[in-house]
Amino acid sequence: MSPTSLRAPLAAESVEFLPLVLNTALDAVIVMGDDDIVRDWNHQAQVIFGWTRAEAVGEPLADLIIPRTLREAHRKGLERFLATGEGPLLGRRIEVTALKRSGEEFPIELSISPVTVAGALLFLGFVRDISERWRHEAFLQRQAREAELLNRVTTLAAETESLDDILRLCLDSVCELTGWPAGHAYLPAKGQPPKLTPTMIWRGDPDEFAALRAVTSKTTFGPGEGLPGRIWSTREPCAIFEIDAPDVFPRAWLADDVGVRSAFGFPIMSGGEVAAVLEFFSRDAAEPDARLMHIVGVLGQQVGRVLERRAVQERQTLLLAELDHRAKNMLAVVMGMADQTARRADSLESFQSAFSARLTALARGYSLVTASRWRTTSLEEIVREIVQPYVAEGQARLETNGHGVVLSPKAALAVTMILHELVSNATKYGALSTADGKIAIEWSVSAANPRTVGLEWRETGLSGLQTPTRRGFGAKLIEATAQRDLGGEVEIEFAAEGVCYRFEFPEPVSA
Amino acid sequence: MFSTQQTRHAAPAPRPHSHAQGAPGAQALRVLIVEDEAIVAMSLESLIEDFGFEVCAIAATGAEAVALATSLRPDFILMDVNLLGEMDGVEAARRARMATDARIVFVTAYGGGEVLARIRASVPDARVVAKPVSAPALLAAIEQMRPQ
After folding, report:
1. Range of the domain at B115
2. Alpha-carbon span B12 to B72, nearest angstrom
3. How far apart are the C-alpha atoms of A451 and A454, rounded to whole Å?
4. Is A354 within 8 Å of chain B by CB?
5. Any idea which of B51-55, B102-106, B142-146 has the lowest mean pLDDT?
6. Which ipTM value was assigned to this complex?
7. Would you state the pLDDT for residue A21?
8. Domains of chain A, with CATH numbers?
9. Do the domain assignments include residue B66?
10. Interface of B with A in 103-132 (CB under 8 A)
């Protein structure tokens, strides 16, 4: 539409309808002359702007509805139109800020049409209050910003290596979202009594809150103490506005002027525990709304879940490394066993038989230890598993007596190998090699501190047994295992009717 | 009965070997084995003797290893990382290195970076041989560090 056509004269019959249009329009309609004076003003205009028709008509429009800062632009625009016929705002809908009678500024949608009535230039302004729409849009934008922030923080947190960097990310993001200028992180410290200690990981201008930073660097909080302590105890976001009350914000009393009027904070929750407390500060008396507190609470939980996932991954990595270590250690034991058995075997057959017997015993030992989930294994179970299979006659030839001895995995494997060597020797040369031989196994744990396990293996029913002139491999392995693997001692007594081994070793308290 | 002092007692007494060969004209290298798995220790002992060196003692704990290294002054220490008792092999090696000139060869099933990093930090000139041990790898590690 050209400027000239904008100024097209209104037909006489149309002019007659103008009051009717004004009175029935759902929009506010304002009629202004080329001198900026209001010529007419309908009821909707009164509803929106607060001025009655009687008050408005005859007054300069700029004084009534245009904010002071925009009046000069309004005046120049009118002058330009009158001089050139050009009006970029005319003939279309625009969104501008307007002024109410109360002084409140608010957004309106405005369309202006210049008309000529009986040779006089008039401007018809049609106005809608779009405050509600703007509020709604602002709310949607905020929702989108919050969702984007939650998404960004959790994504970045998952890619971030250190806890410090995750805390920095959270501080930066929340300050960005809220417009609050400063934030800091507290971490729970191990030890008694439990304390929150400052990390001195800050967001914001170091000079702006220098006093707060200085006092924070020296301040720890117990559960329930100050803002961080309350967040720690309640595990919920918390905000404060009465910075001057010492029980509410103790740090305000530790410095002359910390330069803070409002604060809020929230916990980062991981595995049901508070992993960190983040706090934010403002120089103004600002009150975070319930929605913001909810959002930061959700942020704390989501970042906490990232930390939880990471902890699980770290545990899995450690577990795999431990598994690798145990597997290689076991292979080293098997290789050692093969090497030592081979060195003393006089034929391939004897190697095969001795090695597979040792390997089977070791495998049984591992089964017992695994069944106890690598915690503790009872000595009774080891005897049952390793010795009894060699004694088909059962109680008639094998007497066992003992209770209450439990062994760490390493000790259980060592005792397994010792009992295997003993029963294997007994089968070849000792009590189980004759019809009348018997074996008695007894074990107990002393009450003395440190507690000591005593284990006795006594063979009887032989006659004329000679003390060997040379220590065999079995005896050497038994001795070395008792000494090195169990950290104990063994005493061997050769009697004519059978051999007796007495072991003493410290009760294993851990793996 | 079993005080910490007595764990030393429990270990086999140092046994001087007279039959070790070593290089012609040179005195046999003396090796301290630190290993708490009896069968592995026995196997390492056999290997060292196969190489023609002398095993001067076998220790099962870190404290025992440091004491034996200080008193016996071995040329080499074959050191396991995971040991009985509170002191592990890395710390025992660090202390032994401060007290003696013994060269350290770690024999460990730990392939992870954390243990290797601790070894590098505590005993930078040590060699590391993976467990289960291959005889050529162990001999090569010893030969590389052998005093000229």
Report:
1. 26-145
2. 14
3. 10
4. no
5. B142-146
6. 0.78
7. 79
8. 3-129 (3.30.450.20), 135-313 (3.30.450.40), 345-506 (3.30.565.10)
9. yes
10. 109-112, 130-132
> Residue B45 class from Cβ within 10 Å (0-12 exposed, 13-18 middle, 19+ buried)?
buried
d(CA A239, CA A263): 6
Query: How confident is the prediction for chain A on average, in pLDDT?
Result: 88
Task: Let me know if residue B33 belongs to a domain.
Answer: yes
Closest A-chain CA to B12: A483
Residues of A in contact with B61 (CB under 8 A): 487
Say if B12 is an interface residue toward chain A (CB within 8 Å).
yes
Number of domains in chain B: 1
Distance between CA atoms of A491 and A505, rounded to whole angstroms? 12
Alpha carbons A337 and A404: distance in angstroms, whole number: 30
Shortest Cα distance from B84 to chain A (angstroms)?
Answer: 8
Distance of CA B42 to the CA centre of its chain: 13
Closest-approach residue (CA) in chain A for B11: A483
**Cα(A175)–Cα(A164) distance, rounded to whole angstroms?**
17
Please give the pLDDT value at position A458. Answer: 96
CB-based contact, B43 to chain A, within 8 Å: yes
Quick check: is B92 in a domain? yes
Q: Contacts of residue A340 in chain B, CB cutoff 8 Å?
A: 39, 42-43, 46
Nearest to B46 among A343, A448, A485 (CB): A343
- Burial (Cβ within 10 Å: 0-12, 13-18, ≥19) of residue A388: middle
Return the CATH number at B38: 3.40.50.2300
Q: Is residue B100 part of a domain?
A: yes
A265: phi then psi, degrees, rounded to nearest 5 = -165, 170
Residues A374-400: what's their mean pLDDT? 88
Locate B93 and state its tokens: 């090696």
